[in-house]
Amino acid sequence: FALDRFAHYAFYNPGPGRIEMHLLSLEEQTVRICGEAFNFTRGESIFTESSYKYTIEGFSRLAAEAGYRRMHCWMDAEKLFAVMYLVAAE
């Protein structure tokens, strides 16, 4: 990959509640990997990562469905990030 021919592109996708990261081709190009050729058009992207975002209540429900119980939740001052202490439910 010629990294200077790609740009990092990230956005929030509210439907599934996630931030999506892509590599966006800045031009028409061919990338070769292990003898295979991959053609990209200008603006075509490679989906590289998903980062799911949850509300406190939503993550607590997800944890409960997996057999865990929330014991404590720490949040930053702006309430943008959280760390949860979970224990296995009995």
Descriptive notes:
- The mean pLDDT is 94.
- The longest helix is centred in the last third of the chain and has 10 residues.
- 11% of the residues lie in helices and 54% in strands.
- With 90 residues, the protein is mainly beta.
- It is elongated, with a radius of gyration of 19 Å.
- The N and C termini lie far apart (50 Å).
- It has a three-stranded antiparallel beta sheet, with no helix packed on it. The protein has a two-stranded antiparallel sheet with strand order 3-4.
Number of strands: 7
State the helicity in percent bands: 10-25%
Radius of gyration, in Å, reads: 19 Å
Q: Please state the structural category.
A: mainly beta
Strand content: over 45%
Number of helices: 1
Q: Span from first to last CA?
A: 50 Å
Oligomer: single chain
Task: Estimate the mean pLDDT confidence.
Answer: 94
How does the major sheet shape up?
3 strands, antiparallel
User: Uncertain spans, ≥5 residues at pLDDT below 50?
Assistant: none
User: What's the SSE pattern?
Assistant: EEEEEHEE
Strand order of the largest sheet: 1-2-5
Shape: elongated
Secondary structure elements and pairings:
Elements: E1 6-13, E2 18-25, E3 29-33, E4 36-40, E5 45-52, H1 56-65, E6 68-75, E7 82-88
Antiparallel strand pairs: 1-2, 2-5, 3-4, 6-7
